[in-house]
Amino acid sequence: MKIAIVGTGYVGLVSGTCFAEVGHEVICVDNDKKKVATLQAGQIPIYEPGLEDLIKKNVAAGRLKFTDSIKEGVEKSLVVFIAVPTPPQPDGSVDLTYIEKVAREIAAVMTEYRVIVDKSTVPVKTGDRVTQTIARYTQGKVEFDVVSNPEFLREGSAVADLMNPDRVVVGTDSERATAIMKEIYEPFKAPIMVTDLNSAELIKHAANSFLALKISYINAVSIICEMSGANVDMVAEGMGADKRIGRAFLNAGIGYGGSCFPKDLSAFTKISEDLGYDFRLLKEVSEINRIQKNRFLKQIRDTLWVLKDKKIGVLGLAFKGNTDDVRSSVAMDLVELMQREGAIVRAYDPQGMEKAKSLLPNIVYCNKAEEVAEGVEALVVATEWNEFKDLDWKSMKSKMISPHLFDGRNLLDPQKMRDIGFDYYSIGRS
Ligand code: NAD
User: Fold this and answer.
1) What pTM was computed for the model?
2) Domains in the chain, ordered, with CATH?
């Protein structure tokens, strides 16, 4: 199958690569000429485990190409995926200008039947708008179908998620488009769920909001654990062993961040409001998330008192482990809040530092995790990178002025840390 992907970011690049890996011919299109040049030169602009090797292999096999010309992509492909940003606006609604622009651009160069597949996360009924837009700009002269195919990959395990999806959602009323989509996804051996367009779009927002809800739920439970002397890890294990609940997304911590959950939750809240329903449950999910971060910061403040001029070390800046993505990261928020109070922040992240530098240039960036501990009054674990577990924590402690350790991801063993001599604080575990 000949496929174009418009938007070569986390979703576009990884899905394009995985489509090529199963044998399709893929052209990834991006209007960021620098990004395209980087990719054409064999460099990979994002970090995802396993991605680099897969890109190199498929480029060498001639199945994966990069271009800044949407015309080339649309001309050479039967199916055109849209994977451009859908960022939030100040009122929580989704900025759909990128989608609208790409729809117009596709229409302008489309001369024969194409399947336009929206992979970006969009509000319900966006597909109808895309259909109207393409029909308008082709003046009804070219046949096409619009499909919603939301993406469920997780950054940090995007390649594995795309190669082995739990399910593939295909939203369309067209039999012709359904057959084409089934052919694209057949090699992935995953259940394909065909729905109408609106339902497919809603599945994505409803699913992400539910996952955020699970995180906020366990975080609220962690507060009760702290107040009652219970242990949230044990509570989560006990709950998660019930197949109806499941253990995933029941890890207490300083809250969810990233480029998807916060924006998708506010989008779904706003979509519901616009349709006439006040989805208060979702508002509470966001509120618990905000409170969780502030409670953690308060704990740091209660321990160190005034933060002004205090050196604080932060381990992790990415919004979660195994990614370089720092967009809407709670770790970055914490750093910013502590800096606002005058703290001098030293930090290290295995992959996220380059991207963090452009957003928060005033951090003292360290070359290794061990350097972060030098001369600090407290250490904060803000991202759940596995390598932080294996640090020589005795040596870390010896470099610090005072042994305060705030584990915002419940990554470390409380007893071990206390045995080393840390004044150790984590979430919901006394
Ligand atoms: P991204 O910012 O990493 O990438 C988007 C790319 O689109 C950028 O490279 C940008 O240059 C390009 N672009 C913008 N306008 C363009 C245009 N007119 N023509 C060509 N290229 C254009 O974004 P992302 O994280 O890949 O997210 C894309 C969509 O997928 C969003 O709707 C997001 O919500 C959704 N999504 C993201 C994830 C995730 O984990 N990142 C997971 C599932 C769904």
Assistant:
1) 0.94
2) 2-195 (3.40.50.720), 196-430 (3.40.50.720)
